[in-house]
Amino acid sequence: MNIKRLALTATTVIATAGLLAACGSSTSEEAPSEAAAASEAPAAEAPAEEAGAAEAYKIGVSLADQKSLFYIAEADGIKTACDAEGVECVILSADNDAQRQVQQVNDLIAQDIDALIFTAQDATAASAGVKAASDAGIPVIAVDQKPQDDNAALLATYIATDSVKAAEALCLWMFEQMGNEGEIGILQGVKGSTAEVERSQGCQQALDKTPGIKVVATDIANWDETEAYNAATNMLQANPGIKAIFGESDAMGIGAAKAARDQGREIISVGIDGFPTMVTAIKEGLTQATQAQIPFGMGQMAVADAITLLGGGTIEPLQLQDTVLVTTENVNDVNPVDFYGPNVK
Hints:
With 345 residues, this protein is an alpha/beta fold. It is built from 11 helices and 15 strands. The protein has helices at 34-38, 69-85, 98-110, 123-135, 163-177, 194-209, 225-238, 250-262, 276-284, 295-310, 337-340; strands at residues 4-7, 19-23, 53-56, 58-63, 88-93, 115-118, 140-143, 157-161, 182-188, 213-220, 242-247, 268-273, 289-292, 318-321, 324-327. A 7-stranded mixed β-sheet has the order 2-5-4-6-7-8-14, with helices on both faces. Helix 2 packs across helix 10, helix 5 (163-177) packs across helix 6 (194-209) and helix 7 (225-238) crosses helix 8.
């Protein structure tokens, strides 16, 4: 653990290409306590706090990208928490490049960080990044994604949406709208990623409970609206009986809904995220439901956990967060700021 002594001034972090944000904050000097004022100890031997300095930490953050609203909101939550706590942080984006992310984690380790907040691009990046940080004695707080192998045991904690629970509840809702019978299609995210694995599992659990539903088409759309549009177009053309499509993300749910609209088809289209665009799409009748996540809050939680760990405290190894089911019935009562923070657009 590399605990730093930093003066109580704003910290400016200069980094190379790939650095998205660096944040630190200053706090006002506190007056010495009565006991400290009465002390006759030489100034050089006084606690650092009395000399105008305080313990602070340097937190490295590696994110899969800064295009997804989820990861943008997570970064906003991290920066907000770091500013509030006077913690230096360096935030890097891998731009959806797993190999680049592995290198960025190694770069952060070389910068002598005290803790790593890590949202991996995929299982490969997650495993290699967690192993490298753990080998360097740096605690890793994983958010949203985690290794799918034995390196998951090296995590200090894992903060994520309870994707299994969210997907099961969403699919059960969708099936109910179908009368619990009929054909559906499924659009999956990045194959092998934590969210894809768990959301697929959750929907399968719903399918196991609803024998009248038949999956007639499954395709990978990598969380992307355009890929989802193209995949759904093919699905709908090949399967005229499809009544609904489960998109494992909002972008894919919207892509599927647009494909159906352009073919003159009326289907139920749902996703998971709670993006403002999806909330608007539900209000307009393009899509029908989403499960809203809380990435801004997850970012704040990750910083709080890092500070607790570095201070010698303990935290739960698994911290699953519930979602909010947003449908045509309650969409007018939903504010995306509650999930994605004040900067959401």
